[in-house]
Amino acid sequence: MNGITVRGVGKTYRSGSREVEALRDIHLDIEDGEFFFLLGPSGCGKTTLLRIIAGLLDPTRGRIYLGDRDVTDQPVHKRNTAMVFQSYALWPHMSVYQNVEFGPKMRGVNGPARRDIAENNLERVQLVGFGDRKPNQLSGGQQQRVALARALSAGADCLLFDEPLSNLDARLRMHMRAELRQLVKDTGATAVYVTHDQKEALSMADRIAVLSNGWIVQVGTPEDVYNHPTTRFVADFLGEANFIRGEVEGTAPLAVLQTRAGPIRVKPELPPAKGTTVTCCVRPEYLTLHARPPQDRQTNSLSVRVVHQLYLGEIRQYVCELSNGTRWRASVLGEKTAEFRDDAPAWLCFRNGDATLLVD
Ligand code: ADP
Ligand code: MG
């Protein structure tokens, strides 16, 4: 069993008289073989947490377990983890082979067996024939594949990634997402992957922890955190979102909100308390635009005015003004010609189950 458990971890950096609380009180249960993501804006503490798991940094408080082993006081090389960095961190004076063979060599694997492991992993990252080159004779994408082959060859129980695709150009980054996920899944290792890119996390993760300012604010599958954010921060960070505040007037069977743009009925995960103020959140792709409100009990209709629109190829994005002046974005799929002109009145609609209630 090689899951990772983080219990009450905090980290305070001290430089002179200045103190930075990089991590507050982190608890995580990462399962054996899971591909787990730490997602959040720059400075939220992702790298700090990853380095504490690797053993490159001591926590100020709390414990780290790999499987059921408490490794908090163990040095890096006793933890059986391998790390891939944004900057590749290959040894420049060594050939590709020597870089990739390094892990097995440290474990005492003999020459021919080492070469087999290296060849096998270079094949998996599609770098057959590159073994004798030096890192500076490779492109950025190729160097990152070598770093990946080196991590895979280490025979580690845990693979740790710190923004490994961030230095690659957009096209290669997209291409490597699926490939990297497959390679990691094939090893069966538990993996922790740090990124600030929500698309990367949504497309690759088994589960995601969203961090903000040293705290974990939500943990869940990509579908969970995208479709059921529990705070405005998570809703905003994971994609585009529209918000409106309202007072809860009724709770059963649907929550009824009284907002300044009209009443809204929502099927919430947890019914909110009557009389409280909550925020209703709807993603642009769950909105539709209509000339007349549909007579359907499962659909909310808000009277709007189309402010302007953007044709983006696969979608048309309408910016609409609600009757209280709030602007919402609606993404309409596959609309080749505009159905609504700018300034036209329209009805902006969404189903009861397609909105989330945030208590803030
Ligand atoms: P992330 O990887 O999410 O961008 P980091 O873990 O690198 O965030 O940093 C978290 C916070 O800790 C930031 O405010 C950062 O400035 C601070 N920090 C990181 N490393 C040090 C250090 N060695 N000394 C002082 N502060 C640091
Ligand atoms: Mg970082």
Key terms:
360 residues, alpha+beta, six-stranded mixed beta sheet, five-stranded antiparallel beta sheet, 8 helices, 37% strand, binds adenosine-5'-diphosphate
The structural class is alpha+beta
E-strand count? 20
Assign a percent range to the helix content: 10-25%
The small-molecule ligands in this entry are: adenosine-5'-diphosphate, magnesium ion
- Oligomeric assembly: single chain
**Strand-residue fraction?**
35-45%
Spatial strand sequence of the major β-sheet: 6-7-8-3-9-10
Tell me, briefly, the overall form: elongated
Q: Which residues sit in consecutive blocks of at least 5 with pLDDT less than 50?
A: none
Helix-strand topology string? EEEHEEEHHHEHEHEEHHEEEEEEEEEE
Task: Give structural notes.
With 360 residues, this protein is of the alpha+beta class. It is 24% helix and 37% strand. The protein is built from eight helices and 20 strands. A six-stranded mixed beta sheet has the order 6-7-8-3-9-10, sandwiched between helices. A five-stranded antiparallel beta sheet has the order 13-12-11-14-20, with no helix packed on it. The protein has a five-stranded antiparallel beta sheet with strand order 15-19-16-17-18, with no helix packed on it. A hairpin with a 2-residue loop joins strand 12 and strand 13. The longest helix is centred in the middle third of the chain and has 18 residues, at 170-187. Adenosine-5'-diphosphate is lined by residues 13, 15, 20, 22, 40, 42-48.
